[in-house]
Amino acid sequence: xxxxxxxxxxxxxxxxxxxxxxxWNTRAAAVETDRSHFPNVELTTQDGKKVHFYDDLIKGKIxxxxxxxxxxxxxxxxxxxxxxxxxxxxxxxxxxxxxxxSISIDPEHDTPEVxxxxxxxxxxxxxxxxxTGKKEDIDFLxxxxxxxxxxxxxxxxxxxxLLIGNETTGQxxxxxxxxxxxxxxxxxxxxxxNFKHFKPGETGNTDGRPLQNFDQGxxxxxxxxxxxxxxxxxxxxxPDLMGVTRVRDRKWLLHMIQKPDEMLDGKDPIATALxxxxxxxxxxxxxxxxxxxxxxxxxxxxxxxxxxxxxxxQ
Length: 314
Prior knowledge:
This protein folds into two domains: 3-201, Glutaredoxin (3-Layer(aba) Sandwich), CATH 3.40.30.10; 216-305, Cytochrome Bc1 Complex, Chain D, domain 2 (Orthogonal Bundle). Helix 5 (75-90) packs across helix 8 and helix 9 packs across helix 14 (290-311). The longest helix is centred in the last third of the chain and has 22 residues, at 290-311. It is built from 14 helices and seven strands. Strand 1 (42-45) and strand 2 form a beta hairpin. It has a seven-stranded mixed β-sheet with strand order 2-1-5-4-3-6-7, sandwiched between helices. Mean pLDDT is 78; it is low at 1-35, 194-212 and 309-314. It has 314 residues and is α/β, with parallel strands linked by helices.
């Protein structure tokens, strides 16, 4: 549901290669040069621990860094849910040789206690640290990292960039935190790990042939909804959507897919009840257009019918 803004993000997948030059390369640089690129500002973790960005968080490590704020109702919830998927794919490596960091751009509101609660809502695992600090330090840090966005750029106030890198080898790449989680996990776990495991031939169809049996609704659901919802596999961050087209009005569903913030602001009773039931996690408003909303809804409808057809022997 973030397709409009995503198309505007420069470079798309090409950023994973081009950003190696656009951000910086510190491979041959001394430690002092590294520190000039990576400010050693003091930050505070979700547990209230004081840390220094360069010395304690990234020196000698493989890292993934993004910017969030907990009251965001647009890309941040999806951004965090996507990264939870990436974390699960990387398994025990997160916290061992790979480290995730999410830095709040609203530190006045996002105290350590608020960040800890936010992590719990999204089932964040070990090895992923949420950080707050002084507003001026975080603004300076985000600019140095190439993650800063002018707050007026969209309703969200920032773009969902993800910076991944290996400080030891000097490999750095900026892409979208909303990207395919399997791709992100491979980039972080293999490509950045000194290219030891990266095999271009295994990345999928790259010869220009059209994908076979491509289902637009399935693609959109997987890309924009699958981080928080399942169809028939139980509740996740949000509710299981199996059979939702049978119990909710179609017009209501389309409105909820496209403008969940309006539903909540208007005190819609169902949307309000769902917000309370699922720990106050707001559904991301990613401004999906009418056609894509229909694709998603049609896919949900088809998936909900499939089990019923199977039970009836159809």
